[in-house]
Write a structure and sequence with these properties.
It is found in: Cell membrane. Keywords: 4Fe-4S, Cell membrane, Iron, Iron-sulfur, Membrane, Metal-binding, Oxidoreductase, Transmembrane, Transmembrane helix. The chain is 48% helix and 5% strand. With 693 residues, the protein is mainly alpha-helical. The protein has 4 domains: 186 residues, no CATH class; 124 residues, no CATH class; 139 residues, Rossmann fold, CATH 3.40.50; 125 residues, 3-Layer(aba) Sandwich (Rossmann fold). Helix 22 links the parallel strand 3 and strand 4. Helix 4 packs antiparallel against helix 5 and helix 19 crosses helix 27. The chain is elongated. The N and C termini lie far apart (87 Å). 44% of the residues are buried.
């Protein structure tokens, strides 16, 4: 057969062609559908526009790349999904959505090709390309139908707690009807079109063609086919028209939300304007206090519960459910609330009971929810906006957390210990101390409060300076002049006090001569690297695992001693998810001879939080169990003898809890620097005790 003959008549019917009037009414229904569609989308846009301003259309190339990755490539959807322990990871939702999305996309592409030919814009609907389109549509149609049935089954699972199962079930059923209609039309055509050139390419339609009686009269065949075709056309237009009024709206909102997602680190919270004399409160008191981008995000939620499944607080029964927070805010996006001209406390989110105190204070700022969300919702910043209002405007701060804030403001450390004791960890060591008059050094080692005052972390600080001295690194410490960088204050929602602390520290740091900062605490690392930028502190900051790896690769760090240990590495949230560093800690651990590294099932970007982030180091959130014990169970499952981490808070937490579980009561907990120190030659063990040149 000549390849050019591979095509079909667009408006085919058993009588030779569809009635011209029926054909032309397609344009009327299309116009009507588009008017209804645009009006519905505009109603959503009007609500979003009531949010505060935010820049989200800059850097178009970066945004298109993210859009391609997360929409076309479905990067976040098509991966194994973490479920609640002890259930294994699941690929059910990934397969379901993949079949629906790519099936729908393929059929949409084919429909576009047909439309281009019909409108005399471009005709490529023939030959081998036609054959390719035909085969692709057969596979896509079957895949879409299977995916829709999987979706109907999943939404009927009451254990998943979906709020709008009926809406999604109706949507999936409607799309399933469209798929069946398409195959019926194709089968009917192949049954009554003699020697159809695409019979073997349209293999699904060809199989369906056998259900239609060939002895049907021409008039009856024409009437049946025309009825099915017209019903298919009208229901297709109805689907387009009602997208903005149904759960199908996420096709629009998710794509737009992913394009406009924030390009800064998730954990970076925008600086607040405290110079506004007209401000009556700070933080998110009501729904209109969020930005338009936030409102778009809330509107994008498909309640898939990925955020809830990975939430460490929710996993142990605490009152936080990230999905519920977003859905409650989505339900608060009413015309009355967003367009209210006068203040009315019935729209205040805490005062009217929409959001509760305990759910917001259960958040550990781990960012797992943001990392998992397939439509780009930023649950973390949303929760922190609400927490800022609680702290700054309502004064509802857990008692011990409030004490930590006051200690930092008064004593420059959250424990309230004397500033004179800040450098006691270095007693017996000969360390270079940097001042404004000192010559420039390569690295400023920022020890942090935990390294200065906590006994366990003091050992880490001593290990770090030993390594730096042994490797000949040009570094210095601030000694007693070092102060808390204010990270706990910021995470507890007191942005006003944090701004004062940050301004003071930046002024102090900018007087010192150094090229880079290194710290062993990811919380200090993140604050100095990201949060201080808005206060004029633009520093090149390294976590100690990154520097140790660099020193090893440059052969300055020698590790000749074999260390016979089986270890697993716990990814700190503020190093991994929030700053993207997963490889450096593993590379330096794998460089140690005899050290056997085993990964926990929940590791790297899906790692579970230890529970100390988001200021939780300084208060005990109410309800549920202990997050750290849940993480220790993951450690126990690996069967290792040693847990290695790279975070001051994580180490304090694990060391205080490992004996509470029978399976980890003999566990050894250490920092990366301590593990590396074991592999160093004996003469390097006390390098920092030697006089500084």
């Amino acid at each position: 057969m000549d390849a050019q003959q591979l095509t079909r008549q667009i408006y085919w019917s058993p009588s030779g062609g569809l009635n011209e009037i029926l054909h032309l009414t397609t344009y009327f229904w299309l116009l009507l559908a588009m008017v209804i569609f645009v009006f519905g989308v505009w109603k959503h846009i009007k609500l979003w526009r009531m949010g505060k301003a935010e820049v989200a259309f800059d850097r178009p190339l970066d945004r298109f790349l993210l859009l391609f990755r997360n929409v076309i490539a479905q990067a976040k959807v098509l991966r194994a999904r973490r479920q609640r322990d002890p259930k294994p990871k699941s690929v059910y939702a990934a397969w379901m959505h993949g079949l629906i999305f790519y099936g729908f996309l393929t059929l949409l592409f084919a429909t576009t090709i047909v439309a281009l030919k019909d409108y005399h814009i471009l005709d490529v609907y023939y030959g081998w390309f036609y054959a390719f389109i035909k085969v692709a549509c057969q596979v896509a149609g079957v895949g879409l139908a299977i995916g829709l049935l999987m979706g109907i089954f999943r939404r009927s699972d009451k254990n998943l707690g979906f709020k709008h199962s009926a809406g999604y079930t109706l949507l999936y059923s409607f799309l399933f009807l469209l798929v069946i209609q398409g195959f019926l039309l194709q089968g009917f055509r192949l049954a009554f079109q003699e020697n159809a050139p695409d019979m073997h390419w349209a293999f699904v339609g060809n199989a369906i063609s056998f259900i239609f009686p060939k002895e049907m009269s021409a008039d009856n065949a024409n009437a049946v086919y025309t009825s099915i075709w017209y019903f298919h056309m009208v229901t297709t237009m109805a689907f387009v028209a009602f997208i903005p009024y149904t759960r199908a709206m996420h096709i629009v909102t998710a794509s737009l939300n992913l394009y406009t997602q924030r390009l800064t680190p998730t954990v970076l919270l925008a600086k607040m304007d405290f110079e506004n004399a007209d401000a009556e409160y700070f933080g998110a008191r009501e729904i209109k206090d969020f930005t338009w981008k936030d409102l778009l995000s809330f509107d994008s939620c498909t309640e898939c519960r990925r955020c809830t499944d990975i939430c460490p607080a929710n996993a142990v029964g605490k009152p936080l459910d990230p999905r519920e927070v977003i859905l409650k805010l989505k339900n608060s996006m009413t015309v009355e609330a967003l367009f209210a001209k006068e203040e009315d406390d019935k729209y205040y989110l805490f005062e009217n009971g929409t959001i509760t105190h305990n759910e917001i204070w259960s958040c550990t700022n781990c960012g797992g929810c943001v990392n998992e969300c397939p439509v780009g919702i930023d649950q973390l910043r949303t929760i922190m906006q609400l927490r800022r209002y609680q702290t700054l405007s309502l004064g509802e701060v857990p008692t011990s957390a409030g004490k930590a804030i006051e200690n930092i403001k008064q004593y420059s450390n959250p424990w309230g210990l004397p500033q004179a004791d800040r450098f006691k960890w270095a007693e017996g060591l000969d360390l270079p101390i940097i001042t404004g008059d000192s010559p420039e050094v390569e690295y400023l080692y920022y020890v942090g409060c935990a390294g200065s005052y906590d006994l366990g972390n003091q050992k880490v600080a001593r290990a770090v300076v030993n390594i730096l001295k042994y490797c000949g690194v040009n570094y210095a410490v601030m000694g007693k002049a070092e102060k808390c960088n204010g990270e706990p204050v910021k995470r507890l929602g007191d942005e006003y006090s944090f701004s004062e602390i940050a301004n003071s520290n930046v002024e102090q740091l900018n007087k010192l001569k150094f090229k880079k900062i290194v710290t062993h605490c990811p919380h200090c690392f993140n604050t100095l690297k990201n949060d201080y930028q808005e206060y004029g502190g633009k520093y090149e900051v390294y976590h100690h695992s990154q520097l140790l790896t660099e020193l090893y690769k440059s052969q300055k760090l020698k590790l000749p001693v074999e260390v016979n240990k089986s270890v697993t590495f716990h990814d700190p949230c503020f190093l991994g998810r929030h700053n993207g560093e997963y490889d450096a800690p593993r590379q330096i651990l794998e460089a140690v001879a005899g050290l056997r590294l085993s990964e926990m099932e929940s590791s790297r970007e899906t790692s579970s939080c230890c529970g100390m982030g988001g200021g939780n180091m300084w208060y005990e959130s109410e309800g549920g169990g202990k997050i750290v014990e849940n993480r220790l169970k993951h450690v126990a499952a690996t069967g290792v003898q040693t847990l290695v981490t790279g975070c001051s808070f994580c180490m304090i937490n694990f060391k205080s809890a490992f004996q509470n579980l029978e399976e980890t009561k003999n566990l050894e907990v250490m920092d990366i620097a301590e593990a590396i120190a074991l592999a160093m030659p004996s003469e390097a063990k006390n390098a920092a005790s030697m006089p500084v040149n």
